[in-house]
Amino acid sequence: MIPEDKLIEVKRVLYSTFGVTTYDNIKELTTGLSNALVLRIEVQGKPYLLKFARTDALSDPTLYYYSCMRAGVEAGIAPKIWYAGVEDGIYIADFVDLKPFPLVEAKNKLPEVLYKLHSLPLFTKTIHSFDTFNRFAKRFREMNILPENMTEDIFKSLERITNVYPRNMEDLVPCHNDLKPENILYDGKRAWLSDWEAAFNNDRYSDLSIIANFVVTNERDESDFLNKYFGRNATIYEHARFYLMSQIMHMSYISVFMLTVAATGKRIDINTIKKYDFRDFHNRMWKGEIDLAFNESRLEYALVHLEQLRQTLRTKRFEDSMRIVSNTDLK
Question: In this structure, which long-range contacts are made by residues 23-29, counting pairs with CB atoms below 8 Å and at least 24 apart in sequence?
Fold first, then answer.
């Protein structure tokens, strides 16, 4: 199961870390979209996570993300790292024995986890969600993924957001940026963040809006979520920032997943994609019932966000949020 060209290196790492060269009960873990090889091994009766660095074009040859993970370990929000090799690409950490993470527990615990993450010293890389959005949205429109008459009003509204949304250096914090359910580990008591390959400095509301897709179901949930995150009552300005970033993230999901499918040569016909309720789809994702490794589920997820975006951009709250964020006196 361990690649042949890594066997000698793994034995060396095991010996330098644990004083032994053997392991027991090895098992491959297949959750997630990354092509990294991830294994569960037992060494001297204790389980560990053994991971080999990604080999695709998105991977970082300097394994920069190891430093991000170490910061997370020190903050108590990432499992302990036993070994992280820059040259050999081998990573060993404590294995978290997963337990179901009820949403009522997630609503209470994740705001604190995010606050600890965002309070870390700045990482060495910065990518703003708006830059990512603009890049993928541009490709999305150039490739005519969807008819122009279906997206014209949406892009006009999103352009309005980008024109007023602040992008100040002081707003940037260390972010995980890939907070899908399989990257949130729960042992029955504590929540941990894993797979830090997309970690970099970003607008805090990006991480917040990603998690909110799963744990925020109404305005009261939103208030509780943001109040627990900030440790005080969130201001109307903070609620407005959160709301506007959520719309940008909706379009980011639409663009990324539809572009991913289009890159396979598949023609996208929105009329043939099965429709799901936004809340129901995310509940099923949280329970691990949906695998976004497949094109069909990727398109379904993109459509879920498209329908949600269409609805929210027509609301009074959207206009109110635009007005609030535009008013610097309310900051």
Answer: 26/1, 26/2, 27/1, 28/1
What's at 22, amino acid-wise?
T
pLDDT of 68 higher than 60: yes
What is the CA 321 to chain-centroid distance, rounded? Answer: 24
The CA distance from 268 to 266, in Å, is 6
Query: Comparing C-alpha atoms, which of 128, 223, 207, 112 is closest to residue 168?
Result: 128
Rounded to two decimals, the pTM is 0.91
Cα atoms in the 13 Å half-sphere on the side-chain side of 276: 19
Place of tokens 């490794």: 293
Q: How far apart are CA 180 and CA 117, in angstroms?
A: 16
Nearest Cα to 173, choosing from 235, 237, 129? 129
pLDDT at residue 133 greater than cutoff 90 = yes
Q: What is the CATH number of domain 4-94?
A: 3.30.200.20
Mean pLDDT of the chain: 92
CATH (one of 3.90.1200.10, 3.55.50.30, 3.30.450.20, 1.10.3210.10) for 103-330: 3.90.1200.10
